[in-house]
Amino acid sequence: MIKRQQSDNIPIIKEEALSKIRIAHSTVELEEIYSFYLGRKGILRNFLITIGQFPAAKRPDYARNIHEAIKAIDMAARDKRGQLLLVEIKNKRSSFDITMPGIAVKRGHLHPLTLVERKIEHIFNSMGFGIIEGPEIEDAWHNFDALNIPPDHPARELWDTFWIKSKISGRAGKAPKSKLLLRTHTSPMQIRYMETHQPPFKIIVPGKAYRFEATDASHEFQFNQIEGLMVGEDVSVANFKFVVQAFFEHFFGKEINIRLRASYFPFTEPSFEVDIRCLFCSGRGCSICARSGWLEMGGAGMVHREVFKAVKYDVSRVQGFAFGFGLERLAMMKYKIPDVRLFNSGDIQLSQQF
Ligand code: DAH
Predict the structure, then answer these.
(1) What pLDDT, in 10s, does the model give residues 301-349?
(2) Nearest to 276 by CA among 325, 237, 227, 225
(3) Pocket around ligand 1: residues whose beta carbon is below 6 Å from it?
(4) Which residue's CA is minimally distant from atom 5 of ligand 1?
(5) Among the atoms of ligand 1, which is closest to the Cα of residue 187?
(6) Closest CA to 241 of 257, 225, 262
(7) Over residues 260-269, mean pLDDT
(8) Aminoacyl-transfer RNA synthetases class-II family profile domain spans which residues (predicted)?
(9) Which ligand 1 atom sits closest to the C-alpha of 229?
(10) From the CA of 178, how far away is ligand 1's center (Å)?
């Protein structure tokens, strides 16, 4: 049996609901009020369920009161909903000003080393060079022996090596079995290419190389090189000079002076160090060229006959040049980047400039 006060409460509940609706600030708040009174578990719905338990004589009045309250609250909520929606839509519109400049979509950047590598590939490609890639895990035979750096040769000390434990490689009938390592230069690709191709040809090999050494402003234990190799019946030093000069001029976008300095590499004879006239002081001497007026760009030379023998070429019929340049060094010179470690720092302030 429902208590008497409950039916007396209805007008009070109704007034309370109506005043709450009147001052509601948002449609969200309004819907909360609505469901508190008229929702599936709302107060007035509960009353409806109990009509049947009310004394028969009072039942019609009680029911009418509830229905009236529901109707009044429902109508008030409907009106209020309309008003609040209008305000909310208007507010939303006013925050959308079509005359405001748009927000630029953030786009990714290619890493400066990628840009430089692509540029180099494009230049060599336009001179007819093929672009070859090869394995970073290499065997000692390709990385050293076949390049005329036999075991125990002091020249192996020139390349501080990351050796790979235990695994031994070697293809039947081809290279003898030897230890694995992270290639210390891209030169082993000279061997791999010549093992499977006959001259004449000209290729470049961009790729990563590794050295077991401490990092500083100009050294990283992982870095990139561009290897070059051109072999034919009469490829000469003059051809090399022409090719590197054309390359540097395209790469730096200005006239370049080249100097070849005698040097030593086991896989070339003669060997040179390739210098270019300092880009920053035009040869007068500055801090970047250590006052020498020249910048060292990389090693090169005429392919050693022992290298040709390792790939079973007829040394009386072929000759060619090879070179190896550091990609990071080229990028640093082109864009005046002072520290090689910036390339792998993940600092987008660097890459955003390109
Ligand atoms: N592989 C050498 C290095 O990493 C660079 C080099 C020198 C490559 C002379 C060559 C070359 O092809 O002819 O130190």
Answers:
(1) 999 999 999 999 999 999 999 999 999 999 999 998 989 999 999 888 8
(2) 325
(3) 185, 187, 227, 265, 268, 299-301, 322-324
(4) 324
(5) 1
(6) 257
(7) 96
(8) 116-333
(9) 12
(10) 21
